[in-house]
């Protein structure tokens, strides 16, 4: 990543979606963090609560291996992607995003018509989702508290909201 402006922002590119056959849930983040981008992995920062929260939602122990974690999600009908395909960003701070380019979320939903519920990981992802979504999605949309370690909140409160994913999958 090269510095792209005088604000110290770098151009960051997103990852391909994690998706299996006939997902019923899509979880959308904003854009990979610095560490996630380097690793080429969603939620690659070990301080991010995402994988622990997914284990709680699925009532499963999440494997340590990234590919096995992704398989656990897809086996349970969960797809993961980001709202943004690329942007200029300083560090991992969503608040510093400039020049965002969205992913084709509606196209993805059209290709994966089995998705009935979209969960959005945090307020920043939701803000970009609302700004770029062109057209109706007939399923449910739920905004969850960010799994980022920068989002200071009690674990029990965060967990309570994220276990909604498991409830949707079991309904």
Rounded to the nearest angstrom, the radius of gyration is 15 Å
Oligomer: single chain
Strand content: 15-25%
The biggest beta sheet reads: 4 strands, parallel
Task: Please state the average pLDDT score.
Answer: 92
Taking pLDDT < 50 over at least 5 consecutive residues as the criterion, the unreliable ranges are none
- Helix/strand order, N-terminal first: EEHHHEEEHEHEHH
Secondary structure tally, helices? 7
Shape annotation: globular
First-last Cα distance: 43 Å
Write the layout of secondary structure elements.
Blueprint: E1 10-13, E2 25-29, H1 34-39, H2 50-58, H3 66-75, E3 78-82, E4 84-89, E5 98-102, H4 105-111, E6 117-121, H5 123-132, E7 140-144, H6 155-162, H7 164-170
Parallel strand pairs: 2-3, 2-6, 6-7
Antiparallel strand pairs: 1-4, 4-5
Structure description:
It is a single chain. The model has no long low-confidence stretch (mean pLDDT 92). The strands form 2 sheets. This protein has a 4-stranded parallel β-sheet, sandwiched between helices. Strands 1-4-5 form a 3-stranded antiparallel β-sheet. Helix 2 (50-58) runs parallel beside helix 7. Helices cover 33% and strands 20% of the residues. It has helices at residues 34-39, 50-58, 66-75, 105-111, 123-132, 155-162, 164-170, and strands spanning 10-13, 25-29, 78-82, 84-89, 98-102, 117-121, 140-144. By secondary structure, the protein is of the alpha/beta class. It is built from 7 helices and 7 strands.
């Amino acid at each position: 990543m090269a510095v792209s402006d005088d604000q110290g922002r770098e151009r960051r590119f997103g990852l391909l979606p994690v998706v299996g056959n006939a997902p019923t849930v899509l979880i959308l983040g904003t854009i990979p963090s610095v560490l996630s981008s380097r690793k080429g992995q969603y939620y690659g920062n070990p301080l991010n609560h995402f994988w622990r929260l997914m284990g709680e939602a699925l009532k499963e122990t999440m494997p340590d291996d990234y590919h096995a974690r992704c398989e656990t999600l897809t086996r349970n009908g969960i797809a993961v992607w980001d709202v943004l395909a690329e942007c200029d960003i300083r560090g991992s701070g969503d608040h510093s995003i400039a020049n965002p380019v969205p992913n084709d979320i509606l196209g993805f939903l059209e290709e994966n018509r089995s998705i009935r519920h979209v969960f959005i990981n945090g307020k920043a992802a939701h803000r970009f989702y609302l700004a770029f979504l062109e057209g109706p999605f007939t399923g449910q949309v739920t905004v969850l508290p960010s799994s980022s370690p920068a989002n200071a909140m009690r674990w029990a409160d965060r967990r309570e909201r994220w276990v909604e994913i498991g409830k949707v999958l079991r309904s």
